[in-house]
Write a structure and sequence with these properties.
The protein is of the alpha+beta class and about 260 residues long. It is about 35% helix and about 30% strand.
Length: about 260
């Protein structure tokens, strides 16, 4: 693996730790930074991210991590870049942890951002912390896009931390509106001198019209114009074409682990 790619993953892991700490109860355990979202039991809002120094015994570290999550009423989750932490992956596999997600990690620098895509028939606008109705509409649309049901209150689990991040500058978000309502959008979470493009979504009734590409490009262009030096993401299955079309290139692999 190229040294440049490893250096990028080290930088991104630091950003992942910063994002994990934002709005969460934070504790450092051997080999890990842990962020527990005390306001929600949604399993995806609490996580651990590896950090140096690595423990001498990953198995013991995983046992301690599992116990900490259990004490908080949560199932242990880890987000890790596989190329940086092969010993952790080996130990987790041996202990029966599940690889809940394995996805390519891609990065984008400002000069590599592709030309703006064709208009999609919608209007892009930033999401603002004071616009409660639009924030809630965007989160409900995202929830539907990810297979949720209409009016599920869990769609708004992320609303407090999203609003806080928009206010303090740790998060930037935008959406494409059609007929006055958001139908696609994305979020950038800052940390480690880069920003993660995450939560990319399109309402099921508005797919295959280019709305997500428009939202992502506009959001990235805004952030690059404001001085952001690099964006990254872990690409969901079937989404590589979208991100490569924006100019992203692969540097590694993200693995999300869940305790047995």
């Amino acid at each position: 693996m190229a040294e440049r790619d490893l250096d990028a993953l080290v930088r991104l892991e630091q950003g992942m730790r910063e994002a994990a700490a934002r709005g969460r109860a934070v504790r450092t355990l051997p080999g890990f930074l842990v962020g527990i979202d005390e306001a929600s039991t949604n399993p995806f809002l609490s996580l651990a991210v590896p950090e140096d120094p690595e423990p001498d015994d990953w198995a013991a570290a995983l046992e301690a991590l599992t116990a900490h999550f259990a004490a908080a009423g949560r199932r242990a989750r880890i987000e890790v870049f596989g190329e940086l932490r092969p010993g952790l992956l080996d130990a987790a596999d041996a202990m029966g942890w599940t690889r809940a997600m394995t996805a390519p990690v891609l990065v984008l620098e400002p000069a590599a951002l592709a030309a703006p895509p064709p208009a999609s028939g919608g209007a892009y606008r930033r999401l603002e912390p004071a616009d409660a109705a639009r924030l809630e509409a965007a989160l409900h649309g995202q929830h539907l896009a990810y297979g949720g049901t209409p009016d599920d209150p869990a769609a708004l689990d992320w609303l407090p931390s999203l609003r806080a991040g928009l206010r303090d500058g740790g998060v930037r978000a935008g959406a494409v509106d059609v007929a006055g309502a958001p139908v696609a959008g994305a979020v950038l979470q800052y940390g480690g001198g880069a920003a993660e493009l995450a939560g990319v979504w399109t309402h099921p009734d508005h797919r295959r019209r280019g709305h997500a590409r428009v939202a992502c490009h506009a959001l990235l262009a805004e952030a690059f114009d404001a001085g952001m030096p690099m964006a990254w993401l872990s690409a969901a299955e079937g989404a590589l074409r979208l991100y490569e079309g924006l100019g992203f290139v692969r540097v590694g692999t993200q693995v999300n682990l869940e305790a047995p």
